[in-house]
Amino acid sequence: MSAAALLALAAALCFAVAQILIQYGLRTVPSWRSPLYSIGGSAILAWLFALIFVDFSRFDLDAAAIFAAVGLIFPVLVSILSVRSNEKLGPAVAAAVGNVSPLFAVMGAVIFLDERPGPGQLAGLAMVIGGVALLALRGGAGGRQWPLWVLALPLSAALVRGAIQPAIKTALALWHEPLAAAAIGYTLSTVVILLVVGRRAWRAGPADPTGVMWFTLVGVFNGAATFLLYAALGLGSITLVAPLVALFPLIALGLSLILLRGERLPIVGLLGVVTCAAGVVVLLLVR
Question: How many structural domains is the chain composed of?
Answer without folding.
Answer: 1
